[in-house]
Design a protein that fits this description.
This protein is 53% helix and 9% strand. It is an alpha/beta fold.
Length: 458
């Protein structure tokens, strides 16, 4: 909790800490502890980025507190053109807090990947805070072994794969934090695949020098790259990554990668890259079982200072089964309710607050189901929808399937494209716009899609 006595004033002397102190005084200790206790700020290219724990926090704070935050920043003479709220659990690394010297902070270039002499990670993504169960034991053991002796085990590369929100990023960052804090690796670099690709393109386009990008990795002892499935369909990036990969592997430097699927199932990936991936250890993470979910809920509630009755823990664990991130989101909702209403969190309160969300999660539709139902409606196989053919008897149903995937699932355009044979997200956008346009004038098509949709939802 933010202290406000005079003795603590000196501690909260930076511009951002002064803003936090004013926010505390304005909204009170309960709301402050719920929404701003872990919030941080950094400035980059004239924008103010507020770091918050996850997307739920980002959406809620933006809706309810953005004007107040803007006013506080202005009062403290922090210059910015716009404010954005960044969930640190979504492809984002904790960076150094804003300097007390505003001029210095504006001139600092925020470093990603290998630019920083010391990598910064999410403080909660440690081995101590990773709940181990039957669904993730192998991945956790391999990750810990690699962290203790990077490059000195047979687990090189280590590839961890699994669905969204199961802990892949947590393990990668835990490896990095352990290696830095224990001194098992001198130079650690963590990047998402998007950051790797963007940095490579910037070197090629702006500096006309891909060799400089390659040299950036010359001193790396431990390379961690998240979401390598997004290398799909990017041959230039794949070639450059292969150069870096081969160099580090020959020098017995450690490489750890994550993906949402096994490496050999990533479409449009060069065969020699896949063969190198398969030469290390492939460890999967499955959705947590009931016992693991109960342990996760109890630990996270304890970390947030929340005491949950056993019936509430059982209710959440039995009804949220797909991934850890959804468990966290449910807990945040309960914490917010306790903060705003002052009610104890009983089973009845949990059922009231989370019942609708749980029902919606149970009825969530998969991309594979949509593909199968669309294929059945058009008399083709589901595999044809992912094939690289432009024949209208396949391309038209494919467009409809993409349209329904965007409408009925929460998957990103990139993920949808990957599940349709590794197509680019722009292809998904084009297909969805085409079907939208056709629906405006084609009643027969509308009825056809409505019929297919009914079979998907049945």
């Amino acid at each position: 909790m933010l202290k406000t006595n005079n003795a603590a004033d000196a501690v909260f002397s930076s511009p951002w800490q002064k803003c936090l102190k004013k926010i505390y005084q304005k909204i009170g200790p309960a709301s402050y502890d719920t929404w701003f206790r872990t919030a941080d700020l950094f400035l980059n290219d004239g924008d103010a980025h507020i770091l918050v724990p996850n997307q739920f926090f980002a959406d809620f704070i933006e809706e309810h507190f953005s004007e107040m935050i803007a006013a506080m920043l202005t009062e403290e003479h922090i210059e910015f053109s716009k404010i954005s709220f960044i969930p640190t659990q979504k492809d984002w690394k904790i960076v150094e807090p804003i300097c007390t010297d505003i001029k210095e902070s504006r001139s600092r270039i925020v470093s990603h990947g290998t630019e920083s002499p010391r990598q910064h990670f999410h403080p909660s993504y440690t081995f101590d805070r990773f709940i181990v169960g039957d669904s993730n034991r192998m991945a956790h053991t391999a990750a810990y072994t690699v962290a203790e002796a990077p490059g000195k085990t047979t687990f090189n590369p280590l590839v961890i794969y699994g669905g969204t929100g199961l802990g892949k990023t947590h393990l990668l960052q835990a490896i990095g934090q352990f290696a830095q804090s224990e001194g098992t690796a001198d130079h650690v670099a963590y990047l998402t695949s998007e950051e790797f690709s963007t940095q490579y393109i910037n070197y090629v386009v702006h500096k006309k020098d891909s060799s400089s990008f390659y040299k950036k990795f010359s001193s790396i002892d431990l390379l961690l790259i998240d979401d390598i499935h997004f290398f799909s369909g990017k041959p230039g990036t794949q070639k450059e990554f292969c150069r870096v990969f081969n160099k580090l592997l020959l020098e017995r430097k450690q490489i750890v990668l994550s993906s949402d699927r096994p490496p050999d199932k990533i479409p449009d990936m060069m065969e020699h890259i896949i063969s190198r991936f398969m030469g290390g250890l492939i460890a999967d993470i499955q959705p947590p079982n009931l016992e693991t979910r109960i342990a996760i809920i109890r630990q996270k509630a304890e970390n947030d200072g929340l005491s949950l009755p056993d019936p509430v823990v059982q209710f959440i664990a039995c009804n949220i089964s797909s991934n850890v991130r959804e468990l966290e989101g449910t807990l945040i909702k309960l914490i917010a309710s306790a903060s705003f209403t002052g009610r104890d969190i009983t089973l009845e309160v949990a059922q009231e607050l989370c019942g609708d969300a749980i029902s919606a999660k149970k009825s969530r539709i998969s991309i594979r189901r949509i593909q199968q139902k669309v294929a059945d409606a058009f008399g083709i196989s589901a595999n044809q929808l992912t094939a690289h053919t432009r024949k209208r008897d396949v391309s038209f149903p494919r467009s409809i399937a993409m349209y329904l995937c965007k409408k009925l699932t929460s998957q990103s355009l990139r993920t949808i494209g990957l599940d349709f044979g590794g197509r680019d997200y722009s292809t998904v956008i084009h297909s969805c716009k085409k079907i939208d346009g056709d629906l405006a004038n084609d009643q027969e098509l509308r009825r056809k899609i409505e019929t297919i949709e009914a079979t998907i939802l049945a």
